[in-house]
Amino acid sequence: MNIQSVMTANPACCVASTPLHDVARLMVEHDCGEIPVVDENHLPIGVITDRDITVRTVAQGIDPTQHPAGHYMTSPCVTISVERSLEACCELMEVLQVRRIPVVDKAGKLCGIVSLADVAEYAEREVIVDVLKEVSEPSLELVS
């Protein structure tokens, strides 16, 4: 199964200068937990998650209205080609321990996003269990 058949096409996205409250509003409007950040050519340069907003601003006592998305995004942005398989996407999610991966077309432009929810809907049960287990494992960086 290829990624194009399971991804959410044309996901909501923002630019680095987008105010953080607008990013949060996009998450609410589109019922998602990650917004890709793109440049003027629609090339992904980062992602910002609901967790980024919480951990990098609110938990630090920082007023989230003081800086735009680019200040809090995770960058560089790991992406996967629309031509790759769902299996390859699942392997990448496991290795990187991420719950979502932006999908790019041949020109490198954002064209979709694959989430754990997509994997759960379309992958085989064993694959779903493996991806969920690996993504949920504590990161080696956090283990003392």
How is this structure best described in words?
The chain has 144 residues and is α+β, with helices and mostly antiparallel strands. It has 6 helices and 6 strands. The strands form 2 sheets. It has a 4-stranded mixed sheet. Helix 4 runs parallel beside helix 6. It starts with 7 loop residues before the first strand and ends in an 8-residue tail after the last helix.
With strands numbered from the N-terminus, the spatial order across the biggest sheet is 1-6-5-4
Class computed from helices, strands and strand pairing? alpha+beta
Mean pLDDT: 89
Q: Span from first to last CA?
A: 39 Å
Overall geometry: globular
C-alpha Rg, in Å? 15 Å
The total strand number stands at 6
Largest sheet descriptor:
4 strands, mixed
Unreliably modeled segments: none
Residues in helices, as a percent range: 25-40%
Sequence of secondary-structure elements: EHEEHHEHEEHH
Helical segment count: 6
Strand content: 15-25%
